Amino acid sequence: xxxxxxxxxxxxxxxxxxxxxxxxxxxxxxxxxxxxxxxxxxxxxxxxxxxxxxxxxxxxxxxxxxxxxxxxxxxxxxxxxxxxxxxxxxxxxxxxxxxxxxxxxxxxxxxxxxxxxxxxxxxxxxxxxxxxxxxxxxxxxxxxxxxxxxxxxxxxxxxxxxxxxxxxxxxxxxxxxxxxxxxxxxxxxxxxxxxxxxxxxxxxxxxxxxxxxxxxxxxxxxxxxxxxxxxxxxxxxxxxxxxxxxxxxxxxxxxxxxxxxxxxxxxxxxxxxxxxxxxxxxxxxxxxxxxxxxxxxxxxxxxxxxxxxxxxxxxxxxx
Length: 319
Prior knowledge:
Layout: E1 3-5, E2 14-17, H1 29-39, E3 41-45, H2 51-59, E4 62-66, E5 73-77, E6 82-86, E7 92-95, E8 107-114, E9 122-126, H3 127-133, H4 136-142, E10 146-152, H5 155-162, H6 169-173, E11 182-185, E12 191-198, H7 215-220, E13 229-230, H8 238-251, E14 253-255, E15 262-266, E16 270-274, E17 284-292
Parallel strand pairs: 2-3
Antiparallel strand pairs: 1-2, 3-15, 4-17, 5-6, 6-17, 7-16, 8-15, 8-17, 9-14, 9-16, 10-12, 10-13, 11-12
């Protein structure tokens, strides 16, 4: 029987430690699901996970998966949508995986295939706790507001979602039901896409509001104040973003990787990041971003969204 360490202040994840000889294949799926729904973050340690068992474990909960199309991710098992993390060495701010797109995955799995020894910790933060600890003025400011994610397009993307690389104004105004974007043509002829989500949202298995969006990554990694914007198309006030970062920093937990660890995160509730990686050659973390077969899909998703019907690889932007 595995041993459990319940979440406590400063350690929001449930720790499940293997009994001698126990593997991920031995775990009771229904029990893991119940714990995942309750806690949102599970660290499985001592199960000796390798690439194969990591993939089987992740797939046992997910009907489909999505590829993060950002560059610098080594393909570890592309047939099963398993890739390494970003190959850079810098620290990353807190973010939910792919929150910059309308197909944010339900769950993020990380598996340690090679532990770095020092540095390179993955950081996690409970977005529900972040909202509870925000200054009241910031929480009230974000409450009821929406974030708008506006982006450019390219011919292949337009063809994928609209069926033509050169859509008419009528086609831009009425995208197909399965398309997750709205479109507009700018005065200079360029076509842009956008979608929006609440600034504070309700996670899939929790009634309390959570902070979980692309704001911190955009500001503190990409240096952008214009993505996402508030629903009045103004930048989110700097003092709000700084308060969210300070609160998140105070709640952040750093997971020091051990060989064979697996981290299972509710991507609708928890954010993750990482600390700088002093020994990138020693650190190999596998990822799988999936859509749960017991999901309660976001009602703002398109009906019968393609990423819930089949493994999804979005159109790649031009290099």
